[in-house]
Design brief:
The chain has 192 residues and is α+β, with helices and mostly antiparallel strands. It has two domains: 108 residues, Ribosome-recycling factor (Topoisomerase I, Chain A, domain 4); 68 residues, Gyrase A, domain 2 (2-Layer Sandwich), CATH 3.30.1360. It contains four helices and six strands, in the order αββββαββαα. Helix 1 packs antiparallel against helix 3 and helix 3 runs antiparallel to helix 4.
Length: 192
């Protein structure tokens, strides 16, 4: 196996890892009926003209099972944080209490839970499609390197065949991780 062949595999794995990481970040923010800092961590707050993640502007804790406590580092941003949480359309209503915001997580109905799981499945399928696109691009790049004899990259016909198989294995591995995360989060959402 040539070094260049491995570089195509490494690139495909790295791109699929990033796609998987993005999927995990997306599902962290999906409501489950329980309080979790992931619900509001990535909400963007308008802070001096910049959209800043809430996690960089405040300390977020879970003092109770159905409650989040947001303590801004700069108390003057309290109203901006409150507006951003309400604008995120998560069904959360923050209440200002002294130098912090208390965010109560309401109960989810069975219908809401089903809709959330459906949205989660859509996200998982979109993630898999992105990973399949990475597979397609990696195979195309490997085939192109085989046909391009003028460059420094040397990929043989056998390498191309092996690359197709190895890239497919990498895809299967990542798709199974998406399925595991989907199953885990769906179970968590459907718990009453």
């Amino acid at each position: 196996m040539s070094l260049s062949y491995q570089s195509f595999l490494d690139d495909a794995r790295e791109r699929m890892d990033k796609t998987l990481e993005h999927f995990h970040d997306e599902i962290r923010g999906i409501r489950t009926g329980r309080a979790s800092t992931g619900l509001i961590d990535n909400i963007r707050v308008d802070f001096y003209g910049n959209k800043t993640p809430l996690s960089q502007m405040a300390n977020i804790t879970v003092p109770e099972a159905r409650c989040l406590l947001v303590k801004p580092f700069d108390p003057s941003t309290m109203k901006d944080i409150e507006k951003a949480i309400m604008a995120a359309d998560l069904g959360l209503n923050p209440a200002i209490e002294g130098n912090a915001l208390r965010v109560t997580v309401p109960h989810l109905s069975q219908e809401q839970r089903t809709k959330i799981v459906s949205r989660l499945k859509t996200l998982a399928e979109e993630t898999k499609v992105s990973m399949r696109n990475v597979r397609r691009d990696a195979i195309k790049d490997t085939e192109h390197a085989n046909k391009d004899k003028s460059g420094d990259v040397v990929v043989t016909e056998d390498d191309v065949k092996s690359a197709k198989s190895d890239i497919q294995d990498i895809l299967k591995e990542h798709e199974s991780k998406v399925d595991e995360a989907l199953k885990s989060k769906s179970t968590e959402i459907m718990e009453v």
